[in-house]
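Single Protein Entry

Contents — chain, fold
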Amino acid sequence: MYQHSVAVGSALLLVLAAGCGGERPCTRCDTIVIAATGEPASVLPPLVVETVGRDISDQVFERLADLAPGGAPIDPAAYRPRLADQWARVDSLTWRFHLRPGARWQDGQPVTPRDVVFSFEAFADSTLESQAGEELRGRLRAAAQDSSTVIITFSKSYPEQLYDATWHVRIFPAHIWDGVPREKWGADTAIAHLVGSGPYRVVSWQRGQALTLAADTATGRRARVGTAVWRFAADPEAALNLVLSGEADLMESVGSPERVQRVEQDSALRAVRYPSAAFGFLGYKVGRAGGGQPILGDRAVRRALNQAVDRSTIATAVFGPGAVAPPGPMSRLLWIWDDSIAVLPHDTARAAQAFDAAGWVRGADGVRHKGSSRLGFDILVPSTSTGRRRLAEALQEQWRLAGAAVTVTAVDFPVFQERLGQGRFDSYIGAWLDEPSARVLTEQWSAEGVGGMNYGRYVNPALDRLFARALAAATPAEARAQWRAALDTLNADAPALFLYTPVQVAAVSRRVDSLTIDPYSWLSGLALVSLKP
């Protein structure tokens, strides 16, 4: 079956090339081509780790429900039907989901509650190491109530139950995968096993080259474009060349300003800007376990350092127009974003006064000293990230002007991660990709995150109490107020310097119409895209 599928995919690409004369895709072709950087190891939902794998998998497999773009995870009205057509709270620990009438797998078999239970169990199975496993284990379990109804029971009552019941798990067929040992799922390359209930089905996968989806017609066609082809490129430059040459119609993120300019200069393309789910920051080593620079444990020093930095200028200089300095550890997509959150202002005069008041006096060498101690520390960055290195160098220069002697150490990414986990750093440049829930903030900046993602070992009991109130808030309005109070407190304590959240620029062929980008999953609306004649 797999060899036959490869042959089908090869034929399809040859037809595309022949029909268009090797130039831009012909307007009569019912096919859209996506240029992707890298190739996923798997598109089976619990095994997906790369964003391109998620993009493909989400065309084939469905969640029980989808959270509307910009919706608050605690708001039941923000969810839209998908594999489930309706749901309701039974009590404080239980939700009931009714599956869509007539829902079928792409091989014709009906979707049943057994498939849902099987999928939740697989995502939570530590054997598979799914990215959602930690979120699910011990938190909830699914059970069949009847032939069309699933009951999901939680271990405790909390406002984001509906989010956990729908966001993390894509449902896939038990009748196909139940007979395959889970430790062998990753090595299974059979296209016939990639059966979903979504608008597209997998028809071929040429490893190292391309993966092709076709609109599923088993229950009536739900996609306007009949065929979607992912072309895999080794790097962003190669992916962009596919778009510029007319061999591909879409690219998620073009990258550098120079590449954006090349897209804008091509009359057959559009540069589409949209907010990124990423944000970056400098984290200070506040706790002393594992060593580090003790001066950064001083709140007054951290506040003075933060006031000495022009975050907005650095964000734009490194990541281009549209990038902004966030008001906390978040991208513009996180629903609790609030421009009125209190942040320490850029004010070099106040920073100098604060350093002086704390006893750090500028010496003849331009560096501040306090007794025999010198105001200096190191910034740790991964050598593979040009953006993070540029951020560190920009901070180094602004802090030099403020009287701080700062060095930059670049190491390979595995070493970077190891040193963060061991606490062997003074400060570091971190980057994070948001999901819709704000609770990840507690994992990064509360006492419970020490030993996990709270690498700086920052602890503030008052902040932890505010986090707890925010997580317990029952309405979006109440939650936003509580998160605002928590972030005001976090910024005042200055355990980090929140530096940037960028914009992404997608390259889009002008033959592509009705493309609406959801930054959490940029091609989630592919089934609604049409191609101009």
The mean pLDDT is 91. Residues 2-60+198-275+505-531 form a domain with the D-Maltodextrin-Binding Protein; domain 2 fold (CATH 3.40.190.10). The first strand starts at residue 31 and ends at 37. The radius of gyration is 25 Å.
